[in-house]
Amino acid sequence: MKLKRDILWRVGTVYMGMVLLSFAILFQIIKLQFVERFQWQEQAALLKVEDVIIDANRGSVLSDDGRKLACSVPGYKIYMDTRAAGLTPEVFKADIDSLSLCLSRLFRDKSAAAYKQAIVNARKKGMRYYQISNQRISIIDLKRLKKFPIFRLGANKGGLIVVDDESRKLPFGSLASRTIGKFSIERDSLGRKQTRGIGLEIAYNEVLQGKDGVGDKTRIGGRWVHDVQVHPVDGDDVVTTINVEIQDVAEQTLRDQLMKHNARYGTAVVMEVKTGAVKAIVNLHRAAPGRYVEDHFNYAIGEAAEPGSTFKLASMMVALEDGVVDLDDVVDTEDGSTKYYDRTLRDSEGAKGGRLTIRQVFANSSNVGISKVIFNHYRQDPEDFLDGIAKLGINQKMGIEIPGEVPPYIKNTQDKSWSGTTIPWMSIGYEVKMTPLQILTLYNAVANNGTMVRPSFVKGISRHGKIIETFDADVIKSSICSRSTLRKVRELLEEVVENGTAQNLKNSHYKIAGKTGTAQVAKGAGGYGTKGYRGDEGGVSYQASFVGYFPADEPLYSCIVVVNSPSNNVYYGNVISGAVFKAISDRLYAASFKVTDDYKEPAPLLTDNLPYTKAGNRKELRRVLSKIDLDYDDNADEEWVGVKVDKDIIELVDRQSAKGLVPNVKGYGARDAVSLLESMGLRVYVTGFGKVVSQSIAPGARIQRGSTIVLHMS
């Protein structure tokens, strides 16, 4: 009996102990859940582990000589934890006015009162990640901000949250900016990057973006402790084919022409003949009267339009390759007009008319002559003409690395709009559509001895300043035609400049070969003269173009210039686009080419056995004259001087250039003249060799910084 009582007592004791323990646990749960809840939540906030993605530094986009065309610049976005553990009501109330005033002065986007109201409202809502401003600030401004009231207390007591936010900068401004492109980054719910953009930035995004790293951060007390698990790998640099100087010349000369003729848009592309490397690409559109910008559209690769007379090269190549015509054959162009069924085709104003050789037909861009050749030989078998076009390699996209290239449109006999007049109109560049870059690629192939190379915009990949990968020329077709045809069309293209529609481009230093184009612009379904097409006011609109290569005997560069919808009653390709082409080719020739054999620098002039001496930099002249042991009198005080040569002595004299006025650089060598004028904020274009014989802005004119001055050499 006693044993039974002992057992019951012990079991009861254990039972009561379990009951009491259960009540104790329940009490602690209730205490933690309802009494100490907020205390432990704040403690948890002080000790927190988060996974983080460590962004890799994005690589730069470089010019052909390594200068940065696009690069990342460090920046920061500012947020605030309005309920930070150490941010007491007393501190917040005492310093919110001062903080708001400092923020207003830093960001300059709203008043101090507005900042105070926004932060107070965010604190009432308990926001732990309130964005102070949409603006990004630099490291210098960040240092200032960390000294502001409240924020100077740090993350735990002041609620300051700083987030890295790099921005992309273009050191050369708008130069080639549409081709360089832009990008933006968004993150999905898992934190993965989603990159969107245009141009080279998106085409080479995988190269530029590198590989992000992985780490974690632990919040201990009021500070974060970071731990890197996988280090990020910075992106590589993309070395483009773009040449800054050529790009600058192309953009400035094109912008000047667009403004002069109030055109809707214009594009210019300069390509290296042997490699297809694009050295300059400009796309400007009219953003406002007299204002042209490059941020709208890449017309060179994304706008396919009827090319007009520049397509006549393809037509002649097909006819010559098939042997249906030769250069001295004669075509009757009648009175400059002819009928095909119910439609009349006319030559442009000023065409010669009558019986012309093929050379004259092409040189004078006779629509009647070209169309008659093609129509007479291919109207029964138009597929033969279309096959000939296809053999040239211009019936498909060029396959360039930049996204956005539109395919060419070469009408075929199965097209619903095919008619009896299609062949003659196609032959002169209508009822087909091509981009400027596609047209240029054909002309470049002619300059490149028949080898068609793919246009390229990137020549290599660089890592830490060293080239790790290079891209060679990519051949599309090793030969677009026979040697005989190639020789003949090159003669025709030279004839255009020597005796044809582009005689205004002819010069004594080097030969240009090319073709003018003046095409009416089709305005949607309404034809060529309707209103309401992309902002035009109605009437007939034109597209003026010139495409060619230089020097014609040993081509190094090809170039196309297209100007759309010039509005000041001048619309011919030789006048508008040809002038831009000539400015570009002159600058390139002066900088890159040797003097041709038929052009000799004038022999040094002697005055009683004293050599002729160019004007220039005073210090350099003194050094040279002393080195060759020539007597001279230095009567000058200025840095840049003129030279007088008397019977037995050379005299250095001041040019008396007033500050803020264009100096007289006649007699200077090119290097000295360019150095002096550019130091005054002028853009300088040089044509020819020797000494300066004339300048486009007269000496003594007031200097307008950024203006262009052209120097003509002897």
From TrEMBL:
InterPro entries: Beta-lactam/transpept, Beta-lactam/transpept-like, PASTA_dom, PBP_dimer, PBP_dimer_sf, PCN-bd_Tpept. The keyword Cell membrane does not apply. GO terms for cellular component: plasma membrane. One of its GO terms (molecular function) is carboxypeptidase activity. It is found in: Membrane. Residues 656-714 form the PASTA domain. Gene3D superfamilies: 3.30.10.20, 3.30.450.330, DD-peptidase/beta-lactamase superfamily (3.40.710.10), Penicillin-binding protein 2a (Domain 2) (3.90.1310.10). CDD domains: PASTA_Pbp2x-like_2 (cd06575). Keywords: Carboxypeptidase, Cell cycle, Cell division, Hydrolase, Membrane, Protease, Transmembrane, Transmembrane helix. The chain crosses the membrane at residues 7-30. SUPFAM superfamilies: beta-lactamase/transpeptidase-like, Penicillin binding protein dimerisation domain, Penicillin-binding protein 2x (pbp-2x), c-terminal domain. It holds the Pfam family PASTA. PROSITE patterns: PASTA (PS51178). GO terms for biological process: cell division; cell wall organization. This is Cell division protein FtsI (Penicillin-binding protein 3).
